[in-house]
Amino acid sequence: MSSIYKKYQLKPVINASGRMTILGVSTPQPEVVEAVNLGLNHYFEMQDLVDKTGAYIAGLLGVESAVVVSCASAGIAQAVAAVIIKDDADLLLNLHAKPIHGPCEIVLAKGHNVNYGAPVATMVALGGGKVVEAGWANECSAEELAAVITPNTAAILYIKSHHTVQKSMLSVAEAVAVAKSHGVPLIVDAAAEEDLRLYYQLGADLVIYSGAKAIEGPSSGLVLGREQYVAWVKKQGKGIGRAMKVGKEGILGLTCAIETYLLREKESGEQMVAKMRPFIAALNEIHGVSAKVVWDGAGRDIARTEIAFDQAALGRSAVEMVAALKGGPIAIYFREYKANEGKVEVDVRSVSDSQLTTISEQIQQLLKEKLL
Ligand SMILES: *Cc1c(COP(=O)(O)O)cnc(C)c1O
């Protein structure tokens, strides 16, 4: 394995940032790898594979219908195309070329119009949609969302994510109520969320997950929801979906990953806290560095270590520390959203105990170098 790093001159990475696309997201369990391998080594009637794995996943989750797609971004684009194209066979093949006569506006809260690594609005545009923002940068109520719905509205899009503004935003349940009272579908992007049933049960018509994030599958995505809407998503394979094709290995890998994900005893936030304790103690020994437990800002059961770097004591800002740790012989990646406030977060889910030791040693080493 280390030969891969050598052969292509790649740096080893400690991923303390969570499920991050820039580092390859996650490392699937052996049974998922086996399912991918099986997929790679056999032929299938592909339509049957798509339909039957989708039905199997739907059965596991207690939802009407489901389909595996290439990633959550592809899920957003194809869900948007689905609610705009519906059964229009001509538009399916000519979304790029023909004027859209039916509703094509996708309404979302302004605070949900984020960049998660690529902009939400880009995916909406790929699906033929036109973004219409509701509310303000810092707030969107149910009334503010409802106010921008017109006969041109094709769907409401709700982004359930830590990337979005969290304060003064309507809930998914409130978005469902607005969608129902206006007779428009609700699409929920729950890419990194852990509950595969909740948003469907709340009443969303389509819900989108990233296959490699919480589910820890191969690069893939899951779209689930009401029968008719999922059927329209599936049709996109003959249109824009072809540019986002998912292979048999991805389909079988994700189906297996969902099944094991549902059975697996999840590492609890409390277990993460226990794992972090010696690490936090070691960090607090370092002059100018302080560490403590913080809980996930989006409300998931994830505990992380917050490290604060005291710039006055260290002569280095958190931003400089982050850059130096990435630049070392082993690239160490933190969650750096608050680096400009002097803090970073360590997500320990993909970090071994010995790697935690490496991290605290690297920090100590860097600060020592500074003193010389
Ligand atoms: C990660 C993410 C996506 C994209 O998921 P991919 O599977 O990488 O395409 C979309 N929306 C949100 C909120 C995300 O966090």
TrEMBL record:
Pfam families: SelA (PF03841). It comes from the Bacteria. GO terms for molecular function: L-seryl-tRNA(Sec) selenium transferase activity. Keywords: Pyridoxal phosphate. The modification N6-(pyridoxal phosphate)lysine is found at residue 213. Its cofactor is pyridoxal 5'-phosphate. Signal peptide: none annotated. Belongs to the SelA family. This is SelA-like pyridoxal phosphate-dependent enzyme. It comes from Iodobacter fluviatilis.
